[in-house]
Amino acid sequence: MTQPPAIAVEGVARSFGSVHAVRDVTFEAHPGRVTALIGPNGSGKTTLLLMLASLLQPDRGTIRIQGHDPVTDPRAVRRVMGWMPDVLGSWATLTVRQTLETTARLYELDAAQARSRAAELIDLVGLEELADQPTRVLSRGQKQRLSLARALVHRPTVLLLDEPASGLDPAARIDLRVLVRRLAAEGASVLVSSHVLAELDEMADDAVYLDHGVTASRESVEASRSTVRDWRVRALDPAALAAALAELGIPTGGDDHLGTLVPVAGEQEAAAVLTRLTAHGVAISAFGPAVGDLEHTFLDLAKGGRS
Amino acid sequence: MNGWITGLGTIAALELRQRVRSVAWLVLLIVVFVIVAIVTLLLWFSLSTFGDDSVDNAAIYSSIVFFVLLVGTLVTPAVSGGAINAERDAGTLATTQVTLVSAGQIVLGKFLAAWTIALTFLAASLPFIVLAVAIGGVPITTLLTSLAVLVVELGVVAAIGVGLSGLQTRALFSVVTTYLVVAALSIGTLIAFGLGGLASQSEVRSVYIGYTYDQSVELDPDTGLPEDPDDITCLEPEVTTYQAPRFDRVWWFLAANPYIVLADASPTTFDENGNPEDLFGGIGLGIRGAQLPPDLEQTYDECANAKANWRLVQDDYETPEEVYAKTVPSWFVGIVIHLVLAGLALWGAVARTRTPSKHLPKGSRVA
Lengths: 307, 367
Hints:
Chain A is an alpha/beta fold. Chain A has helices at residues 45-52, 74-80, 96-106, 111-125, 140-152, 170-185, 197-203, 218-225, 238-248, 266-279, 293-303, and strands at residues 7-16, 19-29, 34-38, 60-65, 81-84, 158-162, 189-194, 206-211, 214-215, 228-235, 255-256, 259-265, 284-289. Classes of the chains: A alpha/beta, B mainly alpha.
């Protein structure tokens, strides 16, 4: 990576009284890439995002957003950073359009710019039909889209999305994914937190694992990637598959409703298994990891304790 | 600077849009209008039965203005009390804080909006105040001063309401606390003044010198005393001591009462004996008089007076006009106290709303 990181976090900790929400977080996120922030409920994701969003001071450690320190120069950070909170607050009596125009005004756009930017964003997140309705009539998913639009008002180059997909229907999730990928392609650095890992798998380039307020080290993430994991094999004739596996001496991890699970360590071994099965004449219709990359790593890290 | 004002304006406009569109505001406005109308009518019928001279008209005017202050200070906490913490609860404060507006702009913008709304209630009662002026022949300077004080006082209550809503976590608590502050200023100051004055008492030493005279000498028929002063003999001075309350030490408690400020600020006119002509002037006189310390060494030398054939005039009587002239204008002291309170509340709210924040109020979240 030749460009400087868009987000650089080092040794950040933050506690609330005796609750250590974030203990030791170190990671980087880069321009043009989508970084997943992964962790179970209560692992400190939201607290970390609040610190990145210049709302909360870290007790220890340093944060740089495009090189700016949110503690000493929050204004510079706010100019380049867009934040979509996990709490869906909206000004209930304002319409969608007014909400976006007001937000634009708060980002120091003039009235004409605010109007055109609001129209653009309404179109971008697909709220045209509700544009002149008060925000209190919006459904959860629609509020989510409004919240995303609000985070994009000032064309930020660093985007912090806290659980952006919760409450979205499948179509809206795909829209979200396409939009996030597009923003990254345009050069933004996007940090997405979620505990729905399948969803992150589809859009993230990098991942930061957070558990009990601590980020997993690069080494332990690498290590988990190469640990043994289940791949799922589905054949046109399940009986033939079972026979072939037994004959070839490949151990199985049992069957589920979708197929047979085969534990393998790493992609090379998986490719070898597939070759042997096809060579044996089994008609394979599907072959792939039983759980997504992120989920596998996440579960493996959680199992292995904190690193 | 221009950008700063624009941000302030955006916050104030946002706040007004949210509040003014609410049905609650409209209902309150109508309620205020109707209540002030009823009170004006009642005052009119009850007071004008005593005749229709200027004193009664001034009394009607003073009562209406007092009532408007009462209504205003009761309504303003409700419209300003949840300005910041309710938004924090709803999750809309944090999304404002991540924009380019500062904590100062957020708090001041909300204060300006709350003040504006409070002033709409004043506007709703304005017809009745103007009516009282028009019919009662109250001087226009009195009207202008009353209005100015009402505007400032509503601003003070709005500032305290917004300030406390920034300092306290729960919207309900901050509204209640704002009411308590209003009650403390309106009623608490009276109690503090009374009790404080009684608690800090001073000993007054009073010396009385009597006289006696020989009954056999020729007496002046006018005075009933001997014609020759040498026939009057002075008695031993009688010394008595007693405790007197020191209201002069606690008068500023009363000065902080918004009603006293309102009354004392009105320019007072005096009659030929130096007595104030209107109700506001009378109240103002009371607080002015309280500033004067009691005379701790009193001497009543009746003997010397008798010898001088009652021509010694113990002239330490001051007309109210003279008291007015020599005392501190208490309305000014009161306004300064109020402005300091309002400033402190707003300053505290700004400090509490500034991000990135070091501390979180207990049980609250920033998002």
